[in-house]
């Protein structure tokens, strides 16, 4: 992390668009496997699979460590501050401020991901002073392309990011949203 980048607060709760984005808590550990242990999440994201109780503990510990390091925020997506429905992430990287998300299968189709991305983007613009946030996603992931579009991101004219994850090749497009 750059020494000029603002640090993340010890605790955070963001509200807007009918959502409360909050810190993951110990009480969320039991709910995390149901949210993240799904073939779609295993295929399209770097989240480990299978996602069991041990993976939940590791993810919670990682979220806390990344926040302390000032590299990333991983927040539970809720509608009322209670039951987690998924996760939204903000990551500081040399290539820019990246957002990401994952929703539990039972909670899809309600616009939660696009709303969570917009709330997190507002936080990045207003509190962190960034000029652009990005999403990196595969063009074949129609649901994520839909989220990017609904959240008013635009496809950037930059080279694809290629690599291999979990034994399969990927090519990521970069979508951007500029500070209003």
UniProtKB/TrEMBL annotation:
<dbReference type="InterPro" id="IPR000182">
    <property type="entry name" value="GNAT_dom"/>
</dbReference>
<dbReference type="Pfam" id="PF13302">
    <property type="entry name" value="Acetyltransf_3"/>
</dbReference>
<feature type="domain" description="N-acetyltransferase">
    <location>
        <begin position="19"/>
        <end position="180"/>
    </location>
</feature>
<dbReference type="InterPro" id="IPR051531">
    <property type="entry name" value="N-acetyltransferase"/>
</dbReference>
<dbReference type="InterPro" id="IPR016181">
    <property type="entry name" value="Acyl_CoA_acyltransferase"/>
</dbReference>
<protein>
    <submittedName>
        <fullName>RimJ/RimL family protein N-acetyltransferase</fullName>
    </submittedName>
</protein>
